[in-house]
Specification:
Strand content: 15-25%
Structural class: alpha/beta
Helix content: 25-40%
Number of strands: 13
Shape: globular
CATH topology of the largest domain: Purple Acid Phosphatase, chain A, domain 2
Radius of gyration: 19 Å
Strand order of the largest sheet: 4-5-6-7-9-8-10
Mean pLDDT: 88
């Protein structure tokens, strides 16, 4: 088995917390079969021996009521049966095409009925399609979306979540003041922000420069480890950018093309959702398709 100098130095400096990352690194590089075997072994060694503090999943761009949405919902239910969780981050475009609350049974209550019966709580934010009808107010008022307002925060165990209204007509002045205030006062080890629109993306909409200017400085200042969004109908996980990983999980009912950028760890145009296992020192991420198989794994270290 041969290593180049970079792989040798990386291996020598890794602790148990970094082994999973090394496994992914070697898998994604053009390597010999022996390197692939090493990658698999390293990943197995990094498997946690204790259960996570809690699990949650994220999905977006779901509300079509089509066969594709129901297929992703079924995969989410199957994952729950083997790996129970009680939280879904629903990152916008919850009802196509115009946010009509009259469609709520077909696009939410029916596809996710198994999870809802199990007590899984959905925490939603508004997408651009959601605000077409009455500016999304009926969705904010809908109990199943658990939105106390258009932007809000809540805490689960060691994680504090911050939901944003990322639409162009949002009350950005007050929302940014609120976000900085809430981030500054939070003592949670993990801080996760979610909204509908992308920030870093290799998809149809690309990089969101206004958000890079307004949001990412706050993420860096207050150590936000993860931003979750939809809008792009694809999956993309970035490397850590100034301390923040950016997750696009917009394959909840349809797909669009997605490429790769210098910051991309993995991207795919697949119907899918993402699952997260939160530990004291890391969050393990799994991307899961409608075939119920994991097609990407990542780790965020505290």
């Amino acid at each position: 088995m041969k290593f180049n100098r970079r792989q040798f130095l990386t291996l020598g400096g890794l602790t148990g917390l970094g082994l999973s990352f090394l496994g992914k690194l070697l898998q994604s590089s053009p390597a010999e079969s022996a390197d692939t075997q090493l990658s698999n072994t390293v990943s197995e060694l990094a498997t946690p021996t204790t259960p996570p503090l809690f699990r949650f999943v994220s999905v977006a761009d779901t509300g079509t009521g089509t066969q594709n949405q129901y297929a992703v919902a079924e995969a989410m239910s199957r994952y729950h049966q083997k790996n129970p969780y009680n939280l879904v981050i629903l990152a916008g475009d919850n009802i196509y095409n115009y946010g009509e609350i009259e469609k709520i049974e077909a696009v939410f209550e029916r596809p996710y009925q198994y999870l809802l019966k199990k007590g899984v709580k959905f925490q939603a934010c508004l997408g651009n399609h959601d605000i077409v009808t009455k500016n999304g107010d009926p969705q904010v008022q809908y109990p199943g979306f658990n939105m106390p307002s258009r932007y809000y925060t809540f805490r689960r165990d060691s994680v504090q979540f911050f939901a944003l209204d990322t639409n162009s007509n949002a009350d950005w002045k007050n929302q940014l003041i609120w976000l900085e205030k809430e981030l500054s006062r939070s003592n949670a080890p993990w801080k996760i922000v979610f909204g509908h629109h992308q920030i870093y993306s290799s998809g149809v909409y690309g990089v969101n420069q206004p958000f890079i200017k307004t949001l990412t400085p706050l993420f860096q200042k207050y150590k936000v480890q993860l931003y979750i969004n939809g809008h792009e109908h694809s999956y993309e996980r970035t490397r850590s950018i100034n301390g923040t990983t950016y997750m696009i999980t917009g394959g909840g009912a349809g797909t669009r093309p997605v490429g790769r950028s210098e910051w991309t760890e993995y991207s795919a145009s697949r119907l899918s959702f993402a699952a997260y296992e939160v530990y004291g020192d890391r969050i393990l991420i799994s991307a899961i398709g409608t075939d119920n198989l994991v097609f990407d794994r990542g780790v965020i270290s505290l």
